[in-house]
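Structure in, sequence out. Go:
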């Protein structure tokens, strides 16, 4: 197996119609090889692509589900302009799907937690974040007015 150089899809039974392994040892080896592939795309790029194409795959969801609320916080803070609205809206959108799996819900939960953290920094941020339907449970009257 260490000498095989096929693409990731070759080892993924969900993507290969010909991959119906019966042998348990072979299944394990294929699963290990599949797990060795890393998605090098940035979460921002994945979210923008999903929003633009109105579609995603299992790899997209698995990768985004691994993004912590701290990582979403950093992503949201450093993203500007229209890209910010796109990635925030798409990250929150996953929890709205009726057939959302736990990984999809995890994406939205972590994004929502990041937005609440941003909202808690100032009244201006609280207003901005509320435009996405995210509000703090308890309004903090001590928030600074500034950006």
């Amino acid at each position: 197996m260490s000498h095989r150089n096929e693409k990731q899809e070759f080892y993924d039974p969900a993507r290969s119609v010909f991959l119906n392994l019966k042998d348990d040892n072979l299944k394990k080896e294929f699963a290990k090889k599949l797990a060795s592939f890393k998605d090098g795309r940035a979460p921002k790029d994945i979210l923008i692509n999903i929003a633009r194409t109105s579609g995603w795959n299992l790899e997209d969801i698995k990768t985004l589900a691994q993004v912590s609320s701290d990582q979403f916080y950093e992503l949201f803070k450093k993203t500007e302009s229209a890209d910010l609205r796109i990635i925030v809206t798409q990250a929150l959108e996953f929890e709205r799907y009726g057939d959302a799996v736990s990984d999809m819900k995890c994406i939205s939960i972590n994004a929502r937690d990041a937005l609440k953290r941003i909202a808690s920094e100032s009244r201006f941020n609280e207003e901005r974040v509320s435009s996405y339907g995210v509000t703090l449970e308890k309004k903090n009257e001590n928030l600074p007015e500034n950006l």
